[in-house]
Specification:
Length: 454
């Protein structure tokens, strides 16, 4: 019989090992696939209809001052918040499922062990069946309410912590991107002060979060220790009256502990729930901002700039505007009632003091400025060059072909473009990956060139 039972244990142990391994594997696979789907969804929304550009504009408008609604750090929300959201969602869901299974498994046992609690009031006798079950529910409900009251501030603090961390990381990325400019200006001291200020905000908020977590830890530990003696106190009357024996009292305590553990899921996981709630709020507010930008874009398209079809009587190769008005994100007017026309071959210069709307006018021509009203007619092949040229990270052929895929151009055409730009020394480096935005210089009348040191 000993060897028979040992064999049965071996089968059960192997089954447990297999279940544990595949439980880990399948939950992690679900998390990865969920994150991949959400990342693809948010990237598509963020990069569609110039939403990424309009969100940056909205950060400085009067409608984006609320910390919970300001579309700050979309990179952090897509990269980190989605990862935290899927991780917390799955871990908390699995914990809740485990608590429910434990509750279903032991609530019947506790019900049968606790029996009925009889008492007399005003000459009338009353009996409460499954008394220990109701006491466990009452104990955990009171504990959950107190936990929510103590731990509720953690939601806002977690939200702010993620924002401050993202701001700190974003400024370090800017130092890296503008390293040459900062070095030439000898601006290290100013950048260090800026970074110290942002990191001070990170630490200050984190210390507040720690204090709130400490208060919650005080209560949860008290709650857990009190749960050890609570069933003995409740069942003491029945034990001392002889209604139950010591063995039954210990069984009641054990079953009560399992039921109480399952009902205390909120108390035990409140800090994780607060972090999950903060992450969810950041993602939902990000989604709301993107939806708002898309709605504004559709309305703008209906009444504002309409490229190529706004003025049918205008030749297709002519730039023309009619009653064009431009505003700042704050609502202040830059231009109003502008009508102009430029024919092919004409040279036009736009002059004005800084802040008068010169760059904004070209943004409106390009159709990316949402705070515009009127009509603009553009040639179908109009091209706009930004003030700060952008080179994507990757191979040189990708940088040359941008914003088109490199597969649309042959090696011969790409090499000829380099020769035309007086960069023949790069024709053999089409497949080299480098930070081309830093390796190439735009301060030459001959076009883009490598610095002398390179």
């Amino acid at each position: 019989m000993f060897w028979t039972q040992l064999g049965r244990f071996t089968y059960l142990a192997f089954a447990f090992i297999i279940i544990a391994v595949y439980r880990f594997y399948l939950t992690q696979l679900l998390e990865v696939r969920w994150r991949a789907w959400m990342t693809a969804h948010y990237l598509q929304r963020w990069l569609a209809d110039h939403a990424f550009y309009q969100l940056e504009l909205a950060r400085f408008s009067g409608a984006a001052k609320d910390a919970l609604n300001s579309p700050d750090n979309p990179d952090q929300r897509i990269q980190e918040d989605i990862n935290l959201f899927t991780s917390y969602s799955i871990s908390l869901s699995m914990g809740l499922l485990n608590a429910v299974v434990t509750l279903v498994s032991f609530v019947g046992i506790l019900w049968s062990l606790s029996g009925a609690f009889a008492f007399t009031v005003g000459g009338s006798s009353y009996s409460i069946p499954g008394f220990m079950v109701w006491m466990a529910v009452l104990y955990c409900v009171v504990g959950s309410v107190i936990t929510h009251y103590i731990g509720r501030p953690q939601i806002k603090l977690n939200f702010q912590q993620q924002r401050y961390e993202a701001d700190f990381r974003h400024h370090m990325v800017r130092v890296r991107e503008y390293s040459e400019s900062i070095a030439l200006d000898k601006g290290e001291a100013v950048e260090r002060a800026q970074l110290d200020t942002r990191f001070a905000a990170v630490l200050a908020n984190y210390l507040l979060l720690i204090k709130k977590q400490k208060n919650l830890v005080w209560f949860t530990n008290f709650f857990g220790q009190a749960a050890v003696v609570f069933p003995f106190i409740v069942a003491a009357l029945r034990f001392f009256s002889g209604a139950i024996q010591l063995g039954e009292l210990m069984q009641i305590s054990s079953a009560f502990g399992r039921v109480q553990d399952s009902l205390s899921w909120l108390v035990d996981n409140y800090s994780s729930l607060a972090a999950w709630r903060a992450t969810t709020d950041r993602l939902t507010s990000f989604e709301d901002n993107i939806a708002s930008m898309a709605q504004q874009g559709r309305a703008q398209e209906a009444i504002n700039l309409i490229a190529s079809k706004a003025a049918p009587a205008v030749p297709s190769d002519t730039l023309a505007t009619s009653d064009l008005s431009l505003n700042l994100p704050s609502g202040a007017a830059l231009l109003s009632g502008l009508s102009l026309k430029a024919h092919p071959g004409e040279s036009v210069i736009v002059k004005g003091p800084s802040g008068s709307g010169k760059s904004t006018l070209f943004r409106a021509f390009a159709g990316i400025w949402p705070f515009a009203k009127g009509q603009a007619h553009l040639p179908l092949d109009a091209m706009f060059i930004p003030q700060r040229p952008y080179f994507p990270d990757g191979t040189l052929r990708d940088a040359l072909a941008y914003p088109q895929p490199a597969t649309q151009y042959s090696d011969e055409s790409l090499k000829q473009a380099l020769i035309d730009a007086q960069l023949p020394q790069l024709t053999s480096r089409l497949d080299d990956k480098d930070a081309w935005s830093q390796k190439l210089s735009g301060a030459s009348s001959n076009g883009w060139r490598l610095p002398a040191c390179c």
